[in-house]
Amino acid sequence: MSSRAFRKRVTAAIADRRVAAAVHHATWHKVGARAAGMRMLRNPERLRELAGQIKQHTLERLPEYLEQFTANVRRNGGQVHFAKDAAEARQLICELARSRGLKLAVKVKSMTTEEVGLNSALEAAGVRVFETDLGEFIVQLDRDRPSHIVTPIIHKDRRQIATAMARELGCQYTEDPAALTMIARKYLRDVFRRCDLGISGVNFGVAETGTICICTNEGNGRMSTTRPRVQVALMGIEKVIPRLSDLAVFLKLLARSSTGQPMGSYTSLISGPRRATDADGPSEFHLVLLDNGRSEILAGPFAEVLRCLRCGACLNACPVYRNIGGHAYHSVYPGPIGSLVTPLLDRRGDHHDLPRASSLCGACRVACPVNIDLPELLVRMRAAGRASQGRLKKLGFFGWLCAMRSERAYRAAQRILQAMLSDDGSGWTTGGVGPLASWTAGRDLLRPAPRSFRQLWQEELREQS
Amino acid sequence: MDVALFITCLTDSFFPRAGEAVVRVLRHFGCRVQFPAGQTCCGQPAYNSGFHDEARVLARRMIEIFEPYETIVSPSASCVAMVKQHFAPLLADEPAWRSRAERLAERAHEFATFLVDRLNVDIAGLLRFDEPVTFHYPCHARGIYGAEDLQRWLTRDGQVNLRLPQHVDCCCGFGGMFAVDYPEISTAMLNDKLDLLAATGARLVICNEGGCTLQMAGGARRRGLPLRFKHIAECVADSLGLMKDRP
Amino acid sequence: MSNPDALGPMPEVNSEKRLTAFFDGLRRRSALKPRTELPTLEADVRQVGANADLISRFVAAATSAGLKVHRVGESDSIARVREILAECGAKTVYIEQNACLGGSGAPNDCGVAGPEIEQLTAELALAGITVKSDTSDETLFSVDAGITGVTYAVAETGTLVCQSGPGLARGGSLIPPLHIALLSAAKILPDLYDCLALTSAGSQLPANVNLITGPSKTADIEGILVTGVHGPREVHVILMQNAA
Prior knowledge:
The complex is a heterotrimer. Chain A is α/β, with parallel strands linked by helices. A six-stranded parallel beta sheet of chain A has the order 1-10-7-4-2-3, with helices on both faces. In chain A, helix 16 (335-345) packs parallel to helix 19. Among the domains of chain A are: 53-295, NagB/RpiA/CoA transferase-like (Rossmann fold, 3-Layer(aba) Sandwich); 392-464, no CATH class. Chain A has helices spanning 4-15, 17-39, 44-60, 62-75, 86-99, 111-116, 118-124, 134-141, 158-169, 177-194, 220-226, 246-258, 294-298, 313-317, 319-324, 335-345, 353-356, 363-367, 374-384, 391-404, 407-420, 435-442, 453-461, and strands at 79-83, 104-107, 128-131, 197-200, 204-206, 211-216, 230-236, 240-241, 266-270, 284-290, 428-429, 445-446. The two termini of chain B are 28 Å apart. In chain B, the strands form two sheets. Chain B has a four-stranded parallel beta sheet with strand order 2-1-3-4, sandwiched between helices. Chain B has a three-stranded parallel beta sheet with strand order 5-6-7. In chain C, a hairpin with a 4-residue loop joins strand 5 and strand 6. Chain C is α/β, with parallel strands linked by helices. Chain C has a six-stranded parallel beta sheet, with helices on both faces. A four-stranded mixed beta sheet of chain C has the order 8-5-6-9. Chain C starts with 15 loop residues before the first helix and ends with a strand. Chain C has one domain: 3-Layer(aba) Sandwich (Rossmann fold), CATH 3.40.50.
């Protein structure tokens, strides 16, 4: 039984045919592309196992690896800061901008900066902020919210994009994706030329070298970490990995899981600010380590979710996401991983529908490059949130348990079920109240057979044995 | 071979013909079939909903009823998966029960895999269809059998006109309580699945999971789609002429 | 998910004390026991072995990633660069100084020399092309093409590895709309694993190492592929082999 607010969002999302069509098309396409990309590997299942193992190993020794990582970032000339929550992350980065007189920021698409709500804080502090990933740029122009971890405008079609760009940039209206992209390129080129602050997330932080790894296809990651004089990377504490060579495992899986590509166009390994003899690059490098609830997750029964690479494969694979889209989750993190991470990061919020709104089909587990057992964790979270289940549900399970504890009660329940379902002679029920109304709103219900199997057994089948 | 049937609650109430087919096919291949008295439900609905105390009660009950038997066969992969994958972890804090659960897990078999792996039956060689067929792969069969196994069982060197649906492992949206707790989502998923099945052009859908059949048959009827659903046990029994009624 | 109270006391910037306190807290609270081994990787990770035909693997992977690969003898490289520039209508180019254009300085140098920068510059100038070698914004944002060397390449993925360093501008392979990379065949490593192992072998990584696997691209609008979003629209690889 879903909460009214969630149900309203879901119903609206499913009814929006345009969004539903866009999301269906995109996710089906990505599911196929991922499968094709994984098939190219000699041993895809072994790689997923290894990736999960490396992440799990690192989480089990997180303080050690973080210590090594931060020491090496400093050795490379970077500065390391710690933000215990979203507010601290915002303050730190705003203070960096203020103290250095930075006024124009370019951003690489980053889930952590979305998570802490950095953009509005910077704008309030007088810094112009430009999202530079094309999708995020359009989201920003249209004052919308991203609906996918990797493909933020998966819910928008070209007409909506064209309208937003013409309105906000005053350019000629065009629906041609190439032309729209070139308009954004031209506009952002000018920004890249003048910017003084570059902000990114981190795909991987390599402990042994103090290197951060940033993966993009558009090159905005490179632009934003090359052009400004100050670079800031906001990194969740779970993003650290032990060795540079571990990247071989993750890079073989990451782009394949996201888009099906063997490798994204640009993988940048950044080890501190520019060296004295370097031709270009930022002269300051700041790493902000973000906790924001992660250490609490690490201390609990859901630590496995911290393996997540934010590749989006579970979103693409998920039939629930495919039908309700990202916005219905009311979270920065939608999809199966979002259904776990959202309630964990925002413990005061009302997110109890998220882990329950799943058929537990397991498509997410099959797709996850780091082998997170998402359905199992969803069930675990349902169990942990049992107290928040409605009274009717609890009563229902009490009654059900009573019926299932003895064969006599079970048979009585079977007869009651028979009697409760209306019979117009067709063998089908098409309406009713309570759960029956829920079921029959969109499908018919087969009536129980006139004779149950156990009657059949008693009356016919048993004799033959 | 002595086989104890675990018939599962949905098969019992809604799909007794599938249960009957399981009995007749097993007997055909020389098994002595028993139906342990007192069996009800494996507790899966409670387990999936997070009502683990309730699920534990039924898990212990099921262990008691079935542990006298060496071989247990069920027409439902999801119920077998419940026994094989979830009973032991559920009872992890009770070592004695846990090891009893582990023993039971080793003896529980899904019908088709039992036929193929234990009785060495070539299912594909037995099947006779006079129309094109397609199939639904039940998500909860993951870990019991794969979509490619199901496909192999149904593929007989050009004899079976198998129409593979696109996105072969796409969920039907049933998900137990999910289907009534979140009916809008469940139905939207159902309609995606029905579109994929209908697009194959086949009208007969092989589906080995009662819950999925309940969902898909109900959806097909509501939409007026001419799809029929059959358990693979019924297909085998019908092909061998073991059933009393006409298919 | 963000905390609504935007401004509170400012956390101390770059504070080692705060970090140490956090690490200590993490150590105390973590419920996880260290029981998962850090796996050894090479045998499982490797997709391409040293015995593979590295050149054809590279060409196939790079081409499928959208790079345009031109296989030339070492003496033909400059002519091919000229042709590409002409085809693209490029009138001004940036040439990376200090570029390891040929085999020298490469990890397993097999002696393909590659063109001298002076010679390349001179021949392009002769063809009427304006050659720039400074890394100013004016240059990088105005030239039609950037010509750079490559530190390594990866056969498995068709990746070019470009590092930062003296005379090696990050912007050279990024900002101009056309990137021409000069790659000696000897620099092709079999697997991504080899590339990362080599990169981490030194005492300290360059500040910036870029793995380039394709032109700049996006599919954000309805999944339709468009190249040249922020980086180059076209990347040409001049793959130089010994005539033998």
